[in-house]
Amino acid sequence: MINEPKTLVKCSVSNCHFWGEANLCQAEKIVIEIDAHASRNLNEEFGEEHFNDHKDKARTSAATCCLTFRPRS
Predict the structure, then answer these.
(1) Is 48 strand, coil or helix?
(2) Cβ contact 18:27 at 8 Å
(3) CA-CA distance, 14 to 24, in Å (whole number)?
């Protein structure tokens, strides 16, 4: 098995479960969506089926959001 280098993702949301030292995201995977879909509940069992293969276009980075966020307990 080839170990691929992990992409470093900086984040400023310090109350996220995956937030780590030097503002680096420690999540195994990151889900990013356009704001138009941000209110969708991807925790439902069918959630991934509807978002797995769709493609959207964002005009700016401000039009996107990270759905990986989980509040720190």
Answers:
(1) helix
(2) yes
(3) 10
